[in-house]
Amino acid sequence: MKLTFPHMGNTYIALKALLDTLQVDYYVPPTGSRESFELGIANSPEFMCLPFKKVLGDLIQGLNHGADTILFGNSRGQCRLSHYGDLLQNILHDMGYRFHYINLNFRDLTYGEIRNKLEPLLPGGISRARLFSAVSSAVKTIFAVDDLYSEACGVRCRECRRGDADLAIRRFEQRAKAAKGFSQTRRLIRETKDRLAHVPANGAADPVKIGIIGEIFLCSDPFTNLELEKKLGNMGALAVNTMSTSEWIRRHFISAILPIKPKDKAVRAAQNYMHTDYIGGHGIYTIGNAELMCRDGIDGIIQIYPFTCMPEITAKSVLNEVQLQNNVPIMTLILDEMTAETGYITRLEAFVDMLQMRKDRVRSRSG
Fold this sequence. Notes:
The chain is α/β, with parallel strands linked by helices. It folds into 2 domains: 3-136, 3-Layer(aba) Sandwich (Rossmann fold), CATH 3.40.50; 207-366, 3-Layer(aba) Sandwich (Rossmann fold). Helices cover 56% and strands 11% of the residues. Strands 2-1-3-4 form a 4-stranded parallel β-sheet, with helices on both faces. A 4-stranded parallel β-sheet has the order 6-5-7-8, sandwiched between helices. Strand 7, helix 14 and strand 8 form a beta-alpha-beta unit. Helix 1 runs antiparallel to helix 6 (128-156), helix 6 (128-156) runs parallel beside helix 10 (228-234) and helix 7 (164-178) packs antiparallel against helix 8 (181-197). It starts with a strand and ends with a helix.
């Protein structure tokens, strides 16, 4: 059996290390591939959202390169993700592909479900203890990779020579594709963090701080969000992403295995505006994270989501009140395959400039 899976941000780095450790044959679709994207667009229903089209394109690439097993996951509830698995299978079958399908329930993911779904793929001799250790290492690696990219955001907006942080991350991504297993991947992460720590920085820099909220796929996937974090950093702004893959794991995987479920701060903060803890997708976190960041002194917030995403459309209507109550500017970016990057950059530049002028004005009054 040869496994393939769709990209979602940088999760492929940890998943690749996991499959290497478990000795599972696999094919990783190319990252940042316009060809994959075009394949997904050409074979998707017109009004499906951007993540669906990207996922479909990745799966087509995997099947075209010899994969016979697909690893995917969906959810339950009001987000259309709950129907993606069936629709993806139907489209691929209609295209003539034949494959095994492994579906994980993202809503309440547990170690037991991961074990039961992956065991048929494993060669003989791999114990459950080894599988548990490998899955635990994969989770830690996802957190480590997200932490690395967060550090890069902090360096990028303060670097003396523009492009140093981008070069370090680009080298990391190139080498991570060739790395085998967790030890090599962890070593690459440490080396890249050390490289970032030695990037010459402007100590006097006081960048505007911009929070990123919205639909998790677009928040965490640089290809589909047109490298939002990098663009903001190169404009001199510090990007703070609230919807990384590691945050999702903390909420839906780690909390699921805890005997006492901790109360989510974002969900509680959203109750100032919504009398429910769920509006579909991650819409409630969009509202709650916006409120929490406003309390922490964020300079501005960007909500990003794919065209036709109903949970984020619902959240957007509430964000107007969040903006009014906290006097913090909130801009919404809605993306689909027709989004022009030039106009996208222009909006970001205008938003960053406006926030910088606000910050300078406050500083001059207090000084």
